[in-house]
Amino acid sequence: MPDIKIQIKNLYKIFGSNDKKMISHVEGGMGKPELLEQHGHVLALKDVNIDVPAKGVQVIMGLSGSGKSTLIRHINRLIEPTSGEMLVDGNDVLSMSDADLEHFRRFQASMVFQNFALFPHKTILENGMYGLKVQGQKDDQARPKAQKWLDRVGLSGFENHYPAQLSGGMQQRVGLARALSTDADILLMDEAFSALDPLIRTDMQDVLLDLQKELHKTVIFITHDLDEALRIGDNIAILRDGEVVQQGDPQDIILNPADEYVSDFIQDINRPRVLQIGSIADPKSKSKGPSMEAETVVEDALQEVIAAKADGVTVVKDGKNIGAASLEQLIHAIARPSGDKKGIESYR
Q1: Which residue in 133, 113, 120, 123 sits closest to 181, CA to CA?
Q2: pLDDT at 51 over 70
Q3: Residue 150: CB partners within 8 Å, gap ≥ 6?
Q4: Whole-angstrom Cα distance, residue 327 to residue 31?
Q5: In this structure, are 167 and 307 located in the same domain?
Q6: N or C: which end of the chain has fewer CB within 10 A?
Q7: For the domain that residue 196 is a member of, what is the CATH number?
Q8: Are residue 63 and residue 180 in the same domain, yes or no?
Q9: Which pLDDT score is estimated for 343?
Q10: Residue 67: left (phi > 0), alpha (psi -120 to 50), or beta?
Q11: Total Cβ atoms within 10 A of residue 246
C-alpha cells in the first residue's frame, strides 16, 4: 500500500453569500442547476474524497466547469472551502494559521499555471529565481539553483532573455523550472500544457515524465485531455459537476468505466496504443507465444504475436510471469465498446 501524501476528505465548495447554509440542500439531493436557480449559489465541489499517493502523478480531469481547477486551488488554499478537510502529511491545510500557510506555500507546494504567470519585466533567470527569493534566499544562493533547473529543462543560453522573446513552450519550461527550483515535495500543475500546440505539448509531457523518474515528486496534474491523462497519470480522478464519478488506475478506468459519462469520455481514445497487456492478462492462462513486459501496449504486442504466428503472449512483470493474453483477448481489447453513446459534448 503506497504512502498517502494528500488526503481530500468530504470537500465542498459552494460560491455564494450563504454557502454553508446551502450544504444541507446539496446533501438532500439538490443539483448544480437547481441550486443556482432556486438559491443563486454555484455548486463547485460536492463531497470530494481523493487519496493522493506520495511520489506519483495524480491526474484530475473533467470538462470545463467540472471543478478541477477549483479543487487544485484548495490544496494550497488559494480558495477557501465551504467545508471539508485537506490533509498533507496528516496536517490539515484548511486549518493552518497564516504563518503556517505561508510556510507551506513557500516550501512544500509549488504551482505551474496554464497562462505561464511569468513576470514580463524580469529576465528568464530572474523569473526562475523568484520562488527561491520568496523563500528568503539571497541572489548568490538563488542564482545557481535557478540556473540548474533552467539548464535541466533545456533553456541554457536564454537566461538574459525576457518572456516575450520566448515561445509558449519555452515560457512554460521557465514556469516548470521555477516550480522545481524551490525543492517542494508537491507540484501543482493546473492545465499547465493546455495552451500549447500539440507537438510542443507532447514535448513538455516528455520533459515532465523524464524529470519525474528522477525526482519522484507528488504531482497533481489538471487536464481536460484524456490522452494526456493516460500518458502521464499513475492515478486518475474524473469530475463531473464538482463530483468525483470515478477514480483509480487509468487502465481500469478504460476497461471498466463507471457510467455512461465516463464511457463517453473514453470512447475516442486510441485503445491499441493506450491499453497495456498487463491489464488484460489472465493469471490462470499460459501461452507459447513471446514473453513481454506488462507495460507493453496492445498494438506492439499484436504485431509481435502475428509475426511469430503465436496464439498469444506471456505477460511478465518484475521478472515474474503474471499470466497470458490470447490473440483473441488482444483483439477484443482494442474494439471500441458498443452502445448508443451521446457524445461527450452533450454533457457540457
Answers
A1: 133
A2: yes
A3: 124, 125, 128, 156, 158, 159, 173, 174, 177
A4: 46
A5: no
A6: N
A7: 3.40.50.300
A8: yes
A9: 59
A10: left
A11: 18
Considering the domain boundaries, does residue 91 fall inside one? no
Q: Cα–Cα distances in Å, from 219 out to 75, 79, 95, 149, 210? A: 12, 19, 22, 17, 13
Distance CA 27, CA 177 (A): 42
pLDDT score, position 336? 74
319 belongs to a structural domain = yes
Asked whether the predicted pLDDT for residue 59 surpasses 80, the reply is yes
Confidence of residue 342 (pLDDT cuts 50, 70, 90): low
pLDDT band at 215 (very low <50, low <70, confident <90, very high): very high
Do 294 and 225 belong together in one domain? no
Q: pLDDT confidence of 108, banded at 50, 70, 90?
A: very high
Q: Whole-model pTM above 0.85? A: yes
Residue 275, domain extent: 271-334
Rounded distance between C-alpha atoms, residue 177 and residue 169, angstroms: 12
138 Cβ neighbours under 8 A, 6+ residues apart = none
Total domains in the fold of the chain: 2
Calpha distance 247→258 (Å, rounded): 9
